[in-house]
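Journal club prep — side note

Before the paper discussion, L.F. wants everyone to see what a predicted structure for a comparable chain looks like in token form. Sequence:
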Amino acid sequence: MTIEGYKMMFSFLNEIGDNINFVEANSCEEAYLKINNTKELNINVDLAIIDYLMPVYREKDILNGADVCKYLQNIYPNCKTVILTSIIENVFLFDIVQNVSPDGIATKSDVSGNVFLNIIKIVLSGGKFRSPFVIKQLNEIWENEVFIKEKNRIIIQYLSKGYKISEIADELSVSEITIKKRISKIKQSLNLKEDENILKEAKSRGYI
């Protein structure tokens, strides 16, 4: 129903005319196969609307819509990409923007019919679209420089999953002292005392 709704809204875009061909995919595997198929048939893909949460394709290590987007960008460098997501945590949104850099990104709760059409108009004209909520979440990350560093975010994620310091050190191939120093710096950045709960504070700020 969602896909049909998106397709219907394109009929309101006078700028692109009526001659629109749609290719649909409902999983990462299906998207991967259809991207390859269009390439083999020498069919150009001008625009992709991608849901972040999609059934994974482990054989090709394509685990979400962001991975689909990166693969699509590699095959079709000129294709405009828009990621829509129900995930609102600022760390996830930050990673999508930094590592994938889609032409447009918004949370699903941001998108009404008019907003959807505006996103399409902006990206097709060569602009970038970030919804006000996404911008707010990204600003929160940039205001706290310690979370711009990927390894600090990874450490927080491991801690939230119950990993011990020794286990985190093994996962990242560093010493326990290095992990302890990073955790100490994170606490300083969050204005926490050494005995205060780093996970509680990180969660309240949307970092996990």
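L.F.'s comment for the group: The radius of gyration is 20 Å. Keep this in mind when we get to the figures.
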